[in-house]
Amino acid sequence: MDPSGGCPHAANARLLSRGAVTEVLLPGGVEGMAVLGHAALKEFLAHPDVAKDARHFAALQAGGIPDGWPLRTFATVQGMTTADGADHRRLRALVSKAFTTRRVEELRPHVEALTASLLDGLDRAATSGGGVADLRTHFALPLPMGVICELLGVDAGHHDRLHHLSNRVVATDIGPEEAVAANREMVEVLSGVAAARAEKPGDDLTSALIAAREEDGDRLGPHELIGTLMLTIIAGHETTLNLITNAVRALCTHRDQLALVRSGEASWADVVEETLRWDSPVSYFPFRYPTRDLMLEGTVIPKGTPVLAGYSAAGRDRKAHGHDADRFDITRTAGNRHLSLGHGAHFCMGAPLARMESTVALAQLFARFPDLDLAVPEAQLPRHASFVGNSVRALPVRLHG
């Protein structure tokens, strides 16, 4: 895997042409595998003999993974994404109340108001920038970060730092010292957040998690609390940030599809679902581990192998999405078959919130700025330095024609 990331789709197509499951070499020379095909990935994500707990990661348990390995946090952080069975159900139950359909709808007025306010700021940034503003910095980032931190009870003063540290945690091109430092600082910041909420509880998820721990000390350990906060913040803003960014890029370079929404022939929800399929906000997500040698699509994945879930590859698998899988088409009848939000027990808990935020953001953005377009050719947009996250690092746009 190229630790510098970049656009994954050409490489995905080459890999898919060789099979739905492939061996990969992870940073540091660690041997792993990736599941790329849609059908294979769907089976793998829900397979009873596939685990998330790192005690099944053979190389880690054998002492072959150093502390500064850039992907180590994905394996070792304590929370829902590294738990199985009863532990996973326990942790998920503690957090799930914040992401029910009803709770998400209660948040809609807040999301709409925050979106409108951020569009004002985007307009001001463009005015002071000669008509050009970075939509990612001024809009796509602060919207989901503001919403998830509101849910968690995290003060606004932490937002920028938490985003920077999240970027470092999911990066695949950083050195050992930087990786260790980013994780240590993230724990320090979130420990401070937890201490503040313990001293002054509020109507937020962090306070609720702390209360659950205090009521029954066995329900949520201190490391699980910090791990849960870390995972919720990273997943709660990075993926939606990429989703909004990728959707705007797609619409700006496919004006015919934008016209379909404006004419009422398609909806903003259609845009979101097709973006999730066509340009998944997460390209390759670490890790799952077979608990026995596992045969998948004719390929054996050895027990204890770290496996990447290839969401961006599966989204353009022609066997699942047809000969035109590379085409962005919001009227695609099979568009809802993507796996970009997961499948099985670990399906993304925040999916309703991500969908709501993204549809509100896109609807208001293009209603306010109907002539919005990219300020530079798409090929010149700087890509993420990670094969985990899939997007660009900046999205300069002109708001007015």
UniProtKB/TrEMBL annotation:
InterPro entries: Cyt_P450 (IPR001128), Cyt_P450_B (IPR002397), Cyt_P450_sf (IPR036396). Coiled coil: none annotated. SUPFAM superfamilies: Cytochrome P450. Belongs to the cytochrome P450 family. This is Cytochrome P450. It comes from Streptomyces mutomycini.
